[in-house]
Amino acid sequence: TLDRITFSVENRGGPAHTTALQLSGLPPGTYEVSVDGINRETIRGGGAGQIVQIPLGDKKEVSVDIRKPEQ
Fold first, then answer.
1. Are residues 35 and 56 in contact, defined by beta-carbon separation less than 8 angstroms?
2. CB-based contacts of 19: which residues, under 8 Å, 6+ apart?
3. What is the rounded CA–CA span in Å between residue 34 and residue 63?
4. DSSP 47
5. What's the CA gap between 15 and 1, in Å, rounded?
6. What pTM, to 2 d.p., does this model score?
7. Distance (Å, rounded) from C-alpha 63 to C-alpha 71?
8. Grouped pLDDT means (10 residues each) for the chain, 71 residues
9. What is the structure's pLDDT at 32?
10. Are 36 and 62 in contact (CB under 8 A)?
11. How far are the Cα atoms of 1, 3, 46, 55, 61 from residue 9, in angstroms, in the given order?
12. How far apart are CA 15 and CA 12, in angstroms?
């Protein structure tokens, strides 16, 4: 069962900005989205695709973690 996705996003655009990621195909359930260890939002899998906002700030790279909360 898929319960976690982790990846990095590089800021190749230069100045601080927010980028969007479209997610679809997640198994049903609730997922927490964290960027550099800070919880940003909660999304639900099992339905239509969703847009997740990823703030890049002025960093060259951020770490994104999408995971099911521990029960």
1. no
2. 9, 53, 54, 56
3. 8
4. S
5. 38
6. 0.86
7. 23
8. 89 86 90 95 88 90 93 66
9. 96
10. yes
11. 24, 20, 24, 10, 6
12. 9
